UniProtKB/TrEMBL annotation, chain A:
Gene3D superfamilies named among the record's database cross-references: Aldolase class I
Protein name per its UniProtKB record: Deoxyribose-phosphate aldolase
Assembly behavior: Interacts with YBX1.
Keywords: Cytoplasm, Lyase, Nucleus, Schiff base
One GO CC annotation: nucleus
Pathway(s) where this gene product acts: Carbohydrate degradation; 2-deoxy-D-ribose 1-phosphate degradation; D-glyceraldehyde 3-phosphate and acetaldehyde from 2-deoxy-alpha-D-ribose 1-phosphate: step 2/2
Automatic annotation (TrEMBL), chain B:
Molecular functions (GO terms): oxidoreductase activity, acting on the aldehyde or oxo group of donors, NAD or NADP as acceptor
Protein source organism: Theropithecus gelada
Subunit-structure text: Interacts with SPG21.
Top-rank taxon, per record: Eukaryota
Cited Gene3D superfamilies: Aldehyde Dehydrogenase, Chain A, domain 1, Aldehyde Dehydrogenase, Chain A, domain 2
Family classification: Belongs to the aldehyde dehydrogenase family.
InterPro entries from the UniProt entry: Ald_DH/histidinol_DH (IPR016161), Ald_DH_C (IPR016163), Ald_DH_N (IPR016162), Aldehyde_DH (IPR011408), Aldehyde_DH_dom (IPR015590)
Residue span, Aldehyde dehydrogenase domain: 50-488, 551-646
Protein name (database record): Aldehyde dehydrogenase family 16 member A1
Length: 318, 768
C-alpha cells in the first residue's frame, strides 16, 4: 500500500464557496451509466478487474468464525478455478482487495487468512459503526483494539451530527484523532452520505475528511436507507480530484452498500475512470464494499466462459 | 499485485482498463437489411407508396466514416414534388375532417410502431449521420415517441381546447443536409396532430425520414399524410411555391432561410424559419463549475446539440473553469457512431472541413486552440476543440461557431455578460449557470434568445415550446405554441399573392417615387394627408412625397406618405428605443394602457366606421370591425395581466427525470429551472422544484415586431414585404396565446399604433 495521506491544515476556504447543483449531478449520474458500455471479452476483463477492487464484507450480528473462514477462502479464490483457467488468468493471483469485518471478528479473520496462506489485508469497521453515536473515547479505543488485533485498514464512521450542524472544525479534529489512533493502518472514512442532507454537505464532508488525513473516503455503511448512489459518488470523486489538484495527494474512493450486480460494478468502474482517470483504477485507490456482488460477477464470468447462465448452486458460496 | 499479470489476454485491458472499440457487426445488420428491401435504391415515399420514377439522377448514400456506399437515392424533380403535394392535398381533405380522436389514435399507433422498430431506426440514423448511437437511442428515439404521445393528447382535445381554429392545410417542410430526424418530428407531430398534412423535402441521401414515412404510411387508412421526397436544395423554391402549400417550415442555414424569405415574400404560403445551430452558455462565479462543464459537454461534445457553443465565463472562475474543461475534454471519446461507448461521432467530410477552416482562421487571428480526447486521426473525425483568447473584433468571433468547437471568452459582470451574449445577430438557445436564483433569472430574462435553460443545457420536452429569435428564426416547436404554428382562425380567407412578381430588390424602397398629384381636389376641404407616425409623432416621409389613394367610388380620398427604406429604419429604431421602457412596465400597467386604447377606439367608433365605409365596406361590417378591434385590444390586455408573472411548478423533482422547461408566449423563453433548494428537511433528499413558468415579459403585440424587426433590420426591404404580406386575422376569434405576426388592420385612422407605425403604401395596401 502506498504511503498515508498526511492530511493538511484545516482550510475552510476550500469548502466555503462550493455549490453542488443537485439536478445537474443527477443528470450526469444518469448519463454516465449509458455512455460506456463494454461487451464480450472486454466485459470479462473489466469484471475480473472489479473483483480485485472488492472489499469482501460481512457485517452481520450472527457472524462467527465459521462463516468468516468461508469468506476468507472466497476472498482468496473469488472466481472458480476452471473459469479462471479458461480465461487464462489462473496464475495471475486474482483475489479480492480486502476482507472487511466487525472489530470483534478481526482475530478470526487474520487467523483464517493466514490459514488460507495469503496476505489479503483485513479491514475492520470501527467508531461505533454504523451510527457513530458513541463517546469519542470509546470510538478511539475501538480503533486501537482493532489495529492491535491485526486490522490494517480501519473503516471509521463520521459523526453525522457535526456535518448537519456545520461544525467542520470539530469534524476535522475528530477525524484527525482517528487518524492518530490508526497508527500505521489505513484510514477509510465513511461519510454516511445518505444521512448528510445535501450534495453540498457531501462535498464539504469529503474535503474535511481528506484534509484530516483519510486514505479513503467511503460513501456509506450499507446500513443507511440510501447507500452508494452515483450522484453522491460523482460529488465525492470531484472532491477527490480537487484535493489532488490542491495538494498532490491521491485519495482513494470506496462506494459501499447496495452494489449487487455485475452491471453495477462496471458502471462504478467507468464512473471512476471518467471522473478521475485510469490511475485511480487500482486497489490502492479504489474499492467496492460488497458482499453479494462477487457471486454475480462470478455468474457473469461463468456465462462468458461457458455460454450458459449459472444457477447459484453452481458456484461456491461465500 | 496486478502488475504481474501477463499473457495473451492482457490486451483485454486487465491492467489499464482502457476502453477499446467494441465490435459492432450486429448493429449493421438491421439497416442493411432494410436497405436491401429497397434493393439499395431509395426513391421517395408518397401517398403510402414508394415512388421511384425513371430517368432521375441518383446520389449515393454513404457511410460518413468509411465512405462505403450504402444505397443510391433518386433525386426528385419538379413533377415529383407536384405529385407529393397533390397527394398531401388529397389526404388533407379526409385527415382534417376526421375528429381529433382519430388523429390521436393514428399518432399513438405511429409511436408504437416506432417503439417496435426503434433498433432499426437508431442504427440506421447513426449509420448514415455518424452520430453516436447512444444519443440517438436514449435521446432522439425516446423523444420522438414522447412527441407523438404528447401531440396525440393535443389532437384528442383539439375540438374543445382549440375551438375556433382550423388546420392550415398542406405544410411544406424543408430540412437541412445535416439534421437529426428529430428536427422533422418536432414539426410533423404538431402539424399532423392539428390536421395538416406534410410534404417533407429532405436532402439527398437521408434515409431515416423515408423510413419514418414508410412506417407511417403502412399504418393504414391515411397513407398520404406524410410524404417524403429527397432532392437537392434547388427544389426548395419549387416546393415553396406549389399551389396548395399553406406554410413552409424551414430549418437550416441562415443564408438559405433569407433566400427563401425573399422567394416567398408576397406569396400565399406562410414561412416558419429555424436557422443556425449555435448555442450559448453563461457560466457565472456562483455556479457549480463541474456541472457547468458537463453542460458544455452536453451542448457541444455529446452529439446532442447540432452546432458549436459560445461560452462566457466569469473572470473570477476563468482559470478553474478552463482547467476543468480541459481535464474533461481529455476523457472524451470520439469514434464510429455505432460504437456504444463513444461520446462523439463524426459528421461527414463537409462538417469536418468547415470546422478545420474555422479553427485555422481562429488561430491565424490570434486565438489559442486546445484539443484533446481520444479521437481517431482519420479524416472525418475532429477532436473536441476549445478556442480561447479570440479577439472580440476578429471575424471568427462574429462568425457562427461550428460543431464541435467551443469558443470561450471571459466577462466581468452580469451586465457585461448580457452585453456580450446579446451582441450577436443569433438568438437560438442559451443556458445560464448560477446557484443564485435571482442572478439566474435576471440573466435568463436579459438574454435575447429563444430558449433559456437554467443550470442545464439542451433539455427538450414535447410540452415546452422552443424556438429562436433574431437571426435564429421565428418559429416555435413543441407545446401549445408549436400547435399554433400550423393553425389559423376558422374562416380565415384563403391567402392570395399580394405582391407583384417583377419587384426589383435593388431599388425597392430606395428609388425616388414617381407619383404625381391626382388632379383637382374637389370638395369643401382638401384631401387629408396621412403622414408617418414614428416614435410618438407624425413625420414627413424621407422621400417628401405623397401618394393619392382613392375611396371605393373612385374619388380622391387622401394622400398617404410615400414611405421608403429609411423611414422603416427610423421606425425600427424608434421601436428599439421604446422597448426597454415598455417591457419594464408592469403587466397591469400594460393592460391598463391597452384598455384605455380600446376605450378611445370605441369613442371614435362612428368616425372610424364611416371612414371604413368610404373604402367600400358595408356600414355594419365596418362597425363590427371597429368593435372587434376594441375587443381584441381588451382581450390582449387581459392576457397581459393574466400571464404577466405566473410561475407554475410543473412537478417536483422525480428521481432521474430531466427537468421540464417552461413555456412562454411570443417572447417568453422556455426557462428551465433546475434549482436546488437545499438543504431540505428530509435528510438525504433535497427538495427540488422544476418550475415551469410562463413569465411573459412582453405579451403585447408590439413586443414581437421589436424582435422580429431586429432580426430583419439589416434587410429592411424584406421587412416591408413581410409586413405587407401579413394581414389582420379578420375574424372574431379569441387571440391565440401568443402574438400573431404583425397585424395590419384596415383602419383608416392612424392613432392606433402609438408606439411606432409606418405605412408602406407602394403596393396599394389600404392605408392603415
Amino acid at each position: 500500500m502506498s504511503a498515508h495521506n498526511r492530511g493538511t491544515e484545516l482550510d475552510l476556504s476550500w469548502i466555503s464557496k462550493i455549490q453542488v447543483n443537485h439536478p445537474a449531478v443527477l443528470r450526469r449520474a444518469e448519463q454516465i451509466q449509458a455512455r460506456r458500455t463494454v461487451k464480450k471479452e472486454w466485459q470479462a476483463a473489466w469484471l475480473l478487474k472489479a473483483v480485485t477492487f472488492i472489499d469482501l464484507t460481512t457485517l452481520s450480528g450472527d457472524d462467527t468464525s465459521s462463516n468468516i473462514q468461508r469468506l476468507c477462502y472466497k476472498a482468496k479464490y473469488p472466481i472458480r478455478e476452471d473459469l479462471l483457467k479458461a480465461l487464462n488468468m489462473y496464475d495471475k493471483g486474482i483475489t479480492t482487495a480486502a476482507v472487511c469485518v466487525y472489530p470483534a471478528r478481526v482475530c478470526d479473520t487474520v487467523k483464517a487468512l493466514k490459514a488460507a496462506g495469503c496476505n489479503i489485508p483485513v479491514a475492520s469497521v470501527a467508531t461505533g459503526f454504523p451510527a457513530g453515536q458513541t463517546h469519542l473515547k470509546t470510538r478511539l479505543e475501538e480503533i486501537r483494539l482493532a489495529v492491535e488485533d491485526g486490522a490494517t485498514e480501519i473503516d471509521v464512521v463520521i459523526n453525522r451530527s457535526l456535518v448537519l450542524t456545520g461544525q467542520w472544525e470539530a469534524l476535522y479534529d475528530e477525524i484527525r484523532q482517528f487518524r492518530k489512533a490508526c497508527g500505521e493502518a489505513h484510514l477509510k472514512t465513511i461519510l454516511a452520505t445518505g444521512e448528510l442532507g445535501s450534495l453540498t454537505n457531501v462535498y464539504k464532508a469529503s474535503m474535511i475528511a481528506m484534509m484530516a488525513g483519510s486514505d479513503f473516503i467511503k460513501t456509506s455503511t450499507g446500513k443507511e436507507t440510501v447507500n452508494a448512489t452515483f450522484p453522491v459518488a460523482i460529488v465525492m470523486l470531484r472532491a477527490i480530484r480537487d484535493f489532488f489538484w490542491k495538494t498532490g495527494n491521491k485519495i482513494g474512493f470506496k462506494p459501499a452498500g447496495g452494489i449487487r450486480s455485475a452491471k453495477d460494478s462496471l458502471a462504478w468502474l467507468s464512473l471512476v475512470k471518467e471522473e478521475l482517470g485510469d490511475e485511480w483504477l487500482k486497489p490502492e485507490l479504489f474499492r467496492i464494499g460488497a458482499s453479494t456482488l462477487l457471486s454475480d460477477i462470478e455468474r457473469q464470468i461463468y456465462h462468458h466462459v461457458t455460454g450458459r447462465y449459472a444457477a447459484y448452486h453452481d458456484l461456491p458460496m461465500s | 499485485r496486478l502488475t504481474t499479470l501477463r499473457g495473451p489476454r492482457e490486451r483485454v485491458v486487465i491492467n489499464r482498463a482502457s476502453l477499446l472499440l467494441i465490435p459492432f457487426p450486429n448493429c449493421l445488420y438491421l439497416p442493411q437489411a432494410w436497405l436491401d428491401t429497397q434493393d439499395r435504391c431509395l426513391g421517395h415515399y408518397v401517398n403510402g407508396k414508394w415512388l421511384k420514377p425513371e430517368h432521375r439522377n441518383s446520389v449515393p448514400c454513404q457511410d460518413p466514416i468509411t465512405g462505403e456506399n450504402l444505397a443510391s437515392c433518386l433525386q426528385a424533380q419538379a413533377e415529383d414534388v407536384a405529385a407529393a403535394v397533390e397527394a398531401a392535398r388529397t389526404a388533407f381533405k379526409s385527415w382534417s375532417a376526421h375528429p381529433g380522436v382519430v388523429r390521436a389514435q393514428h399518432l399513438v399507433r405511429l409511436a408504437k410502431v416506432i417503439q417496435k422498430h426503434q433498433r432499426l431506426l437508431w442504427t440506421l440514423e447513426s449509420l448514415v449521420t455518424g452520430r453516436a448511437v447512444r444519443e440517438v437511442r436514449d435521446g432522439d428515439v425516446q423523444l420522438a415517441q414522447q412527441l407523438l404521445h404528447y401531440h396525440a393528447i393535443q389532437a384528442s382535445t383539439q375540438e374543445e381546447a382549440l375551438a375556433g381554429w382550423e388546420p392550415m392545410g398542406v405544410i411544406g417542410l424543408i430540412l437541412p443536409p445535416t439534421f437529426s430526424f428529430l428536427e422533422m418530428m418536432w414539426r410533423i407531430c404538431p402539424a399532423l396532430a392539428v390536421g395538416c398534412t406534410v410534404v417533407a423535402l429532405v436532402p439527398p441521401a437521408s434515409p431515416t425520414p423515408l423510413l419514418l414515412a414508410q412506417l407511417s404510411g403502412e399504418l393504414g387508412p391515411f397513407p398520404g399524410i406524410l410524404n417524403v421526397i429527397s432532392g437537392p436544395a434547388s427544389l426548395v423554391p419549387v416546393l415553396a411555391s406549389q399551389p396548395g402549400i399553406q406554410k413552409v417550415a424551414f430549418c437550416g442555414a441562415l443564408e438559405e432561410g433569407r433566400a427563401l424569405r425573399r422567394t416567398l415574400a408576397g406569396e400565399c404560403a406562410e414561412l416558419g424559419l429555424a436557422l443556425g445551430t449555435e448555442s450559448l452558455l453563461l457560466l457565472t462565479d456562483t455556479a457549480d463549475v463541474d456541472s457547468a462543464v458537463e453542460g458544455v459537454v452536453d451542448a457541444a461534445w455529446s452529439d446532442r446539440g447540432p452546432g458549436g457553443l459560445r461560452l462566457l465565463i466569469q473572470e473570477s472562475v476563468w482559470d478553474e473553469a478552463m482547467r476543468r474543461l480541459q481535464e474533461r475534454m481529455g476523457r472524451l471519446r470520439s469514434g464510429r457512431g455505432l460504437d456504444g461507448a463513444v461520446d462523439m461521432g463524426a459528421r461527414g467530410a463537409a462538417a469536418c472541413d468547415l470546422v478545420q477552416r474555422f479553427v485555422r482562421e481562429a488561430q491565424s487571428q490570434g486565438a489559442q486552440v486546445f484539443q484533446a480526447g481520444d479521437v481517431p486521426s482519420e479524416h472525418p473525425f475532429y477532436p473536441p476543440t476549445l478556442v480561447s483568447n479570440l479577439p472580440p473584433a476578429s471575424p471568427c468571433a462574429r462568425a457562427e461557431v461550428p460543431w464541435p468547437v467551443v469558443v470561450a471568452s471571459p466577462f466581468r459582470t452580469a451586465k457585461e455578460a448580457l452585453a456580450l451574449a446579446n451582441g450577436t445577430p443569433r438568438g437560438g438557445s442559451a443556458s445560464v449557470w448560477s446557484e443564485r436564483l435571482g442572478q439566474a433569472l435576471e440573466l435568463g430574462y436579459g438574454l435575447q434568445v429563444g430558449t433559456v435553460w437554467i443550470n442545464a443545457h439542451g433539455l427538450r420536452d414535447p410540452s415546452v415550446p422552443t424556438g429562436g429569435c433574431k437571426e435564429s428564426g421565428c418559429s416555435w416547436h413543441g407545446g401549445p405554441d408549436g400547435l399554433y404554428e400550423y393553425l389559423r382562425p376558422s374562416g380565415t380567407p384563403a391567402r392570395l399573392s399580394c405582391l407583384s412578381k417583377n419587384l426589383n430588390y435593388d431599388t425597392f424602397g430606395l428609388a425616388v417615387p414617381s407619383t404625381l398629384p391626382a388632379g383637382p381636389e374637389i370638395g369643401p376641404s382638401p384631401a387629408p394627408p396621412y403622414g408617418l407616425f414614428v416614435g410618438g409623432r407624425f413625420q414627413a416621409p424621407g422621400a417628401r412625397s405623397s401618394r393619392p389613394i382613392q375611396d371605393s367610388s373612385g374619388n380622391l380620398h387622401g394622400y398617404v406618405a410615400e414611405g421608403g427604406a429609411k423611414d422603416i429604419r427610423g421606425a425600427v429604431e424608434a421601436a428599439h428605443q421604446a422597448f426597454p421602457g415598455w417591457a419594464g412596465q408592469s403587466p397591469g400597467a400594460r393592460a391598463a394602457l391597452l384598455w384605455a386604447l380600446a376605450a378611445a377606439l370605441e369613442r371614435r367608433k362612428s368616425t372610424l366606421a364611416s371612414r371604413l365605409e368610404r373604402q367600400g365596406v358595408e356600414l355594419k361590417a365596418a362597425e363590427a370591425e371597429v368593435e372587434l378591434s376594441a375587443r381584441r385590444l381588451r382581450a390582449w390586455g387581459a392576457r397581459a395581466q393574466a400571464q404577466g408573472h405566473t410561475l407554475q411548478v410543473k412537478d417536483l423533482w422525480a428521481r432521474g427525470r430531466a427537468g421540464q422547461v417552461g413555456w412562454g408566449g411570443a417572447q417568453t423563453r422556455g426557462c428551465e429551472m433546475s434549482q436546488a433548494w437545499g438543504p431540505a428537511a428530509t435528510p438525504g433528499r433535497g427538495l427540488h422544484f422544476n418550475m415551469r413558468f410562463a413569465w411573459d415579459i412582453q405579451t403585447l403585440s408590439w413586443a414581437k415586431p421589436y424582435f422580429f424587426l431586429s432580426f430583419l433590420e439589416t434587410e429592411s426591404r424584406s421587412v416591408a414585404q413581410a409586413g405587407v404580406q401579413w394581414r389582420d386575422l379578420g375574424s372574431l376569434q379569441a387571440p391565440p396565446p401568443r402574438f400573431m405576426p404583425f397585424s395590419c388592420p384596415r383602419l383608416p385612422t392612424n392613432f392606433l399604433f402609438f408606439l411606432f407605425f409606418f405605412i408602406f403604401s407602394r403596393d396599394g395596401i389600404s392605408p392603415c
